[in-house]
Design goal:
Layout lengths: L1 E5 L3 H17 L5 E5 L2 H5 L8 E5 L7 H11 L4 E6 L5 H4 L6 E4 L3 H18 L3 E6 L2 E6 L5 E5 L2 E5 L6 E6 L7 H5 L2 E3 L4 E4 L3 E5 L2 E4 L4 E3 L5 H15 L3
Parallel strand pairs: 1-2, 1-3, 3-4, 4-5
Antiparallel strand pairs: 6-7, 8-9, 8-12, 9-10, 11-12, 13-14, 14-15
Helix pairs in contact: 1-5
Length: 239
């Protein structure tokens, strides 16, 4: 999950980042946080594909509401969560369809609860991968995806036909939605994320898929990757 954090108090911003990273890392969900101390700085990142923005409402030089509105114009699917010391700002936050409004004094328990609710909502949705190609959007059923490959600034999505992408789109593996990994996908190296239901075996630093494709496995993380697959296979391999 790629998350934007913006708070003009650097100590608060760092605390938000720490709580966020601790939450997702404890659930083995990849997370990347971009921390900014002004709305202007945050807007320099608006072309990036964030799934979630944690914004202070009362920024020094720019309203957090105005910042959220501009970010949503660039990325309509962005989830906005506002964090503030003042409850009176709450109604204004919902004018931009904020998902949640959190008081800074309650940050340590309200933010993790917010994440839990958000993940539960996302996992209850139809199991698809949303792909943006220019102005077009497509929903790919996860069952049709064998693996995803990072290719410079693009992601190639492959199905059962070897070496013939279902589609390609601009993005990074680190930006893939967390529900993908909760649904049986495993990152096996720098360039590949694989649907474990289509893995025949992992051995000799290779992943062998049911369609005959072989992919390289990271040597540094080989034992962890193979262990994660065997654990998944033990739970879901016969389904």
């Amino acid at each position: 999950m790629h998350i934007l954090i913006c708070d003009d108090e650097s100590t608060v911003g760092k605390r938000v980042r720490q709580v966020t990273e601790d939450y997702f890392e404890s659930r083995e969900i990849p997370v990347s946080c971009t921390l900014c101390t002004s709305g202007e700085e945050a807007l320099t990142h608006k072309k990036e594909t964030f799934q979630l923005a944690l914004l202070d409402v009362d920024l020094n030089t720019m309203s957090g509401i105005a910042l959220g509105r501009e970010l949503k114009q660039e990325n309509p699917e962005l989830v906005l969560v506002y964090i503030s010391a003042y409850i009176e700002f709450a109604p204004e936050g919902y004018t931009v369809n904020a998902y949640r409004y959190i008081l800074k004094r309650d940050l340590d328990w309200m933010l993790p609860n917010c994440f839990t609710d958000l993940l539960a909502e996302q996992s209850s949705r139809c199991e698809t991968l949303t792909v943006h190609q220019g102005r077009n959007t497509a929903e790919l059923p996860l069952d049709t995806i064998y693996y995803l490959e990072s290719d410079l600034r693009k992601i190639n999505v492959y199905g059962d036909m070897p070496h013939q992408p279902l589609c390609s789109y601009y993005g990074k593996l680190i930006e893939l939605p967390e529900n993908l990994f909760q649904s049986g996908f495993l990152r096996v190296g720098r360039s590949y994320v694989v649907n474990m239901k289509y893995i025949l075996q992992i051995s000799n630093y290779k992943v062998e898929l049911k369609n005959g494709v072989e992919l390289s496995v990271s040597r540094n993380g080989y034992s962890t990757i193979r262990g994660a697959f065997l654990e998944w296979k033990g739970q879901f391999g016969d389904e």
